[in-house]
From TrEMBL:
CDD domains: ExoIII-like_AP-endo (cd09086). This is Exodeoxyribonuclease III. Its cofactor is Mg(2+); Mn(2+). Pfam families: Exo_endo_phos (PF03372). Coiled coil: none annotated. Residues 4-251 form the Endonuclease/exonuclease/phosphatase domain. One of its GO terms (biological process) is DNA repair. It comes from Corticimicrobacter populi. The record marks N152 as: Transition state stabilizer. InterPro entries: AP_endonuc_1, Endo/exonu/phosph_ase_sf, Endo/exonuclease/phosphatase, ExoIII-like. PANTHER family: EXODEOXYRIBONUCLEASE III (PTHR43250). Probably binds two magnesium or manganese ions per subunit. The record marks H251 as: Interaction with DNA substrate. The keyword Manganese applies.
DNA sequence: ATGACGAAATTGTTTCGA
C-alpha cells in the first residue's frame, strides 16, 4: 500500500490537483496539510465520489489537516491530547495496514516558527515538545505507527539547497534539528532516507524568484515510521510532478510504499 | 535592507507562509 503526505496550501484551490494525483498515484492514505478552510467547507463529497473516506480538522484562513483513506478511520483524534492549541495542526486515525492488521496514522502540520526571535519560534519548540511527549504513549499503544506531514524542519544540510545561506535560520536551527532528532530517538525512522536518493532532493520550493525552476528548495515534508513499518517499507520518494502544475502548491507530495510481509 | 509569490479576508491592503 501507498501512504503519502502533501501540504496543499489551500484545499479549495488545490482540490482538482489532489483528486488528479490521488487517481494517478494510486495512493491509499493521503495526509493533507494547510487546508485553509473551515470544517463545514471540507469537500467530502468529492473524495467520496473518488472512492475515499476522510477525516479532517479545519479552521478559518489558516492551518487545517485531513486524512484521506480508502478505508474509514477509527479512533479519530484531533490535536495533541493534553496540549491546548487553537490552531488545527494534527489529526490521527487507525487504519487497515494493508496486511490484515492495523496502523496508526498521524497527520501533522508543524508550526513554521517565522524567525528565531519570534514568539512563533517559542511556540514551535513547545509544540514539538508536546508532540514528543504524546508520541511516547502513542508508540506504546501502536507498534505500527506513521507520522506524516509538513515538519517545517530540514533535518540536515543535504536537505537545504544553500546550507551556508540558511545556517542558523528558522527551519534549520540547532534546536529545531534537535527536535527532529528527538523524534527519531523514540524509535522512528525517516522513510526517505531508508533508500538511496538523488542529491538536492527537496519537497518545498519558494514561489518567488523561480524557486522550483532553480531547484532552490528544502526537504521539510517527511514520513517517519516505527521499526515494524520500516521492515515493510520498500520505497519512498518525493513526487515533484505536481509542483510543475499550473497554480501549484509550493510543496510536493512525499510517499512511501509498504508491502505485506517482511 | 527590501521584496520577490500566492492565498485569504476583503475590495485596497495587510498578514502570513517557509
Amino acid at each position: 500500500m501507498k501512504i503519502a503526505t502533501w501540504n496543499v496550501n489551500s484545499l479549495k484551490v488545490r482540490l482538482p490537483q489532489v483528486l488528479d494525483w490521488l487517481a494517478a498515484s494510486e495512493t491509499d492514505v493521503l495526509c493533507l496539510q494547510e487546508l485553509k478552510l473551515t470544517d463545514e467547507n471540507f469537500p467530502l463529497q468529492a473524495f467520496v465520489d473518488a472512492g475515499y473516506h476522510a477525516c479532517w480538522s479545519g479552521q478559518k484562513t489558516y492551518n487545517g489537516v485531513a486524512i484521506i483513506s480508502r478505508e474509514p478511520g477509527r479512533d479519530v483524534i484531533k490535536n495533541i491530547p493534553g496540549y491546548e492549541d487553537s490552531q488545527q495542526r494534527v489529526i490521527s486515525a487507525t487504519l487497515p495496514d494493508g496486511a490484515g492488521g492495523e496502523m496508526r496514522v498521524i497527520c501533522a502540520y508543524c508550526p513554521n516558527g517565522q524567525s528565531l526571535e519570534s514568539d512563533k519560534y517559542v511556540y514551535k519548540l513547545a509544540w514539538y515538545a508536546a508532540l514528543q511527549r504524546w508520541l511516547k504513549s502513542e508508540l506504546a499503544r501502536y507498534p505500527q505507527l506513521a507520522l506524516l506531514g509538513d515538519y517545517n524542519i530540514a533535518p540536515a544540510d543535504e536537505d537545504v539547497h544553500n546550507p551556508e545561506k540558511w545556517a542558523d535560520q528558522v527551519l534549520v536551527s540547532v534546536p529545531e534539528r534537535q527536535a527532529f532528532q528527538d523524534l527519531l530517538g523514540l524509535g522512528l525512522s525517516d522513510a526517505f532516507r531508508l533508500f538511496e536518493q538523488p542529491e538536492k532532493s527537496f519537497s518545498w520550493w519558494d514561489y518567488r524568484q523561480f524557486g522550483f525552476r532553480r531547484n532552490a528548495g528544502l526537504r521539510i515534508d517527511h514520513i517517519l515510521l516505527t521499526q515494524a513499518l520500516v521492515e515493510r517499507c520498500v520505497a519512498s520518494e518525493i513526487d515533484k510532478g505536481p509542483r510543475g502544475n499550473e497554480q501549484p502548491s509550493d510543496h510536493a507530495p512525499v510517499w512511501a510504499r509498504l508491502v505485506a510481509g517482511a
